[in-house]
Structure formats: structure tokens, C-alpha cells
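Milestone M4 deliverable, item 7.
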Amino acid sequence: MGTSHAATGVLAGAAVGVLVQTDPLSTLICALIGGGAALLPDLDEPGSTVGRSLGQVTELTSQKLREASKAAYRRTATEVELRKAQSGGHRHLTHTIPACLAFGVLAGVVALIPLGLGLVVFAMVALGLGTVLRSIKKLGPLKKRKRATLVVAGFFGLSMMIVPDQALPFWLVGVVVFAGALVHVLGDWLTRSGVPLAWPFVHRGKRWWMFRSPVAFHTGNSPVEDAIRVGALIFAPIMMVLWGATPPPM
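Output delivered:
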């Protein structure tokens, strides 16, 4: 589910920051970017929590990605696959490894342009936080939660624009977004629905063969998913504190 994907994305982003030995604040930014990036694959579903997280912006993006996914399925599906009526929408194009790479490359390119880094940070924080807050109805009216999302995302986005010393290199932004999207795909691989990990190559006569973990589980009220979500949220800050405090090499 959305919150679980965001949690694993935070862990993945923090891990990338720690591995390249960024300073503590940059590692935190990497974690926040990863949390939003881990939700990008589910933007192929307009009705999903992430698809509705930021209103018309994410809804329109979801519709376009859904159309692109369906078109890719029609053009690349094998004869065996085309015999069965299947739309090729959710869990198809955006849930492939090439799509994860595309998300990363796009983020890296945007980060190269003036104010681009701030835009990427704003978008990823807004996407991640917006999805999480939308699922917590106890926090008040939806408009209030959206407003809080934009304020927090705006703060981090602006900090990247007005504090040059804290700017992340464009390649690191791309790597973090790729890692976040990839952990989403791997997370869905753990479920019964599976993901097309072989695309665009053919496996057993199918280009969109859905790979599933041998110990796949159902999403929703699953103790496995709960353990993954809670474990990621606990280990991420521990990792940032214990290993993320190492100063970058001179």
C-alpha cells in the first residue's frame, strides 16, 4: 500500500545518502526524495491514494501514465498475451525496471536546470507526504492535510534553492529517485499480483510475465506488510544517526 511504499522509499533514499557519505542534512533530503520516488510507479492508477494525493495535478498525471501504459502493452505484448483481454494499465509500464531508470534520469535532468533541484525536492516531498497524510483521516479535513503537505514540501524545496551549500549533485538525485522507484517494484514483487520484471524481454512466451515472490502475500491488513513498513521507518533514522553522521570526504 502507499504508506508502506513510502516507508521503504525513505529507507532506500537514506541508504543511498549514507553510502555516498553525504552530510546529515543531505542524507535527510535523500530520504525524503526516496519516500516520494517510491510512489511514482503507482501513478499509473488514477484512483489510487497517490493518484489523488495532490488533486488535479496527480490525477492528470495518472491518467496520462495509464494511457501510456496501455499503449505500451498493446504495442509490445506477444501474440500469446493478446489472446486474452487485458488493458495493460496498472502494474505494467511504470512497474518495470526501464521505467525506474526513466524516472531517475528525468529527475537528474530536471535537477540540472536552474531551480530544478528545488522542484524535484518539492515534488517528491509533496508526493510522499501527501499520500501518507491522505490516508490518515484523523488529522482533520482533507484540505487542511493538503495545505500542510504543500507547506512542508515548499519549505524543503525552497531550502534547496536558497541554500546552495546544501544542493545535491544531479546524479545523486537521479540515483535516489531510481532507488525509490525500484524498491516500490520489488515491494510489489512480494505480493500475489507480481510485476513484469523481464520487460521488454520475453519470458515463457510473454513480454509482460508477472513475476511473484515464492512467499508472496496479499496487500492490505497483512502482518508482513506491517513489519516491512514499521521496520523501514525504524531502521531509516537509526541508519542515518549511526552511519549518516560521517562527514563527506575532502
